[in-house]
Amino acid sequence: MAVIGHGFKGLEKRQIAHALNSRFPGLPILELCFHSPEIPGADFLLTDSPAELVAGVREVLAGRRVRGYAT
């Protein structure tokens, strides 16, 4: 699993995701964002909460989708 954080701009996030998908097809990607996701098809969290990040990682690793906030 890969987590792509808030510190990257949209184009950078997409380039990183493309490189990861090329090298590791099917690798789950969790994108952290403040406003809207930039990586097509990736799971994403609209928060900077460490607790939400941990919950989101658990959800993705369990095979569930994360769309905005972890449940």
Protein described:
There is one protein chain. The chain has helices at residues 10-23, 50-61; strands spanning 2-4, 29-32, 43-45, 67-68. By secondary structure, the chain is of the alpha/beta class. It has one domain.
SS-based class: alpha/beta
Largest sheet: 4 strands, parallel
- The fraction of residues in strands falls at 15-25%
Are there runs of 5+ residues with pLDDT below 50, and where? Answer: none
What is the share of helical residues? 25-40%
Q: Note the quaternary state here.
A: single chain
Tally the helices: 2
- The rounded distance between the terminal residues' Cα atoms is 19 Å
The geometry reads as globular
Topology:
Layout: E1 2-4, H1 10-23, E2 29-32, E3 43-45, H2 50-61, E4 67-68
Parallel strand pairs: 1-2, 2-3, 3-4
Can you give keywords for this protein?
2 helices; 71 residues; globular
In short:
By secondary structure, this protein is an alpha/beta fold. The protein contains 2 helices and 4 strands.
